[in-house]
Design goal:
Blueprint (H helix, E strand, L loop, with lengths): L7 H33 L4 H5 L2 H12 L3 H50 L3 H6 L2 H10 L2 H29 L1 H48 L1 H6 L3 H27 L5
Helix pairs in contact: 1-4, 1-7, 4-6, 4-7, 6-8, 7-8, 8-10
């Protein structure tokens, strides 16, 4: 949050782009349903779902076209709505990428400045591998912001779908929500396992990176005290641990795709 604060305008604009993109996505679904209804029930299609005078006026306007032309007109409007949705999604992704790049640069600058400005005794007590890992963690900001943008967009799209489906048929909407809830509960348990294994994998990677950096920095001492083979064995053990954590994380992550 503090790294994005200087560019809150970019974040707000990306949020608005996602919001209006969700409106166009919901409009596309509604227009396509109206188009199908126009072929099936040309005199009742808009009255069925649009409130009051709005439905009557639109139905009268479409009736003047005839069922086939009204169908094509509504499909064309749906295509236009999708074009606007695509443009807005591209804008939101671009703004998020710019925001992520700037926030990542700011995080790296602040982390590096804080490390080099530490008192010498305190800085000398830190491991070199830990300090390089602290700097490397700033690179994750770009990915985190991209994921947040995707979650916001997906949440708004789901809300738009929910409104349209409830408007069309609330029993089917509740049935869909029940199925969605069951699948979500299953996904939550899988995600919990993925997060746990991902934390373990991250810890193993940090340990391996820190140890490898320290051993490479002290390679002369390793040869002087005949500890090279010990370092190789420890490195092999850490690599095996990392491989095991990565395998479990990958297996559980792949289990999400069928769902």
């Amino acid at each position: 949050g503090i790294f994005c604060r200087p560019w809150w305008g970019l974040a707000l604009t990306a949020m608005l782009a996602n919001f209006f993109g969700a409106l166009f996505e919901g409009s596309t679904l509604g227009l396509l349903v109206l188009a199908l209804e126009q072929l099936a029930r040309p005199t009742q299609s808009c009255v069925t779902f649009l409130p009051g005078a709005v439905g009557a006026i639109l139905t009268g306007w479409l009736t003047g076209f005839g069922p086939e032309r009204a169908f094509l007109a509504l499909v064309l409007l749906a295509v236009v709505a999708q074009l606007f949705r695509s443009v807005l999604q591209f804008a939101a992704d671009t703004l998020t990428a710019v925001l992520g790049a700037r926030a990542q640069a700011l995080a790296y600058h602040r982390t590096f400045s804080r490390i080099v400005r530490l008192p010498f005794q305190r800085a000398n007590a830190l491991h070199l591998g830990d300090m390089t890992d602290y700097l490397h963690q700033s690179t994750y900001l770009h990915d985190i912001l991209g994921r947040v943008n995707g979650l916001v967009r997906d949440g708004l799209f789901i809300a738009a779908y929910g409104v349209i489906l409830t408007w069309l048929s609330w029993p089917l909407t509740f049935a869909a929500l029940a199925i969605y809830g069951a699948v979500t509960a299953m996904l939550a348990r899988i995600l919990e396992r993925i997060h746990r294994h991902a934390r373990e994998l991250r810890g193993a990677e940090l340990t391996l990176s820190r140890k490898a950096t320290e051993w490479l920095q002290a390679i002369r001492l390793l040869h002087s005290f005949s500890r090279v083979e010990d370092a190789v064995r420890q490195a092999d053990r850490l690599v095996e641990e990392r491989l095991a954590h990565r395998t479990r994380t990958t297996v559980w992550s792949n289990s999400l795709e069928p769902l």
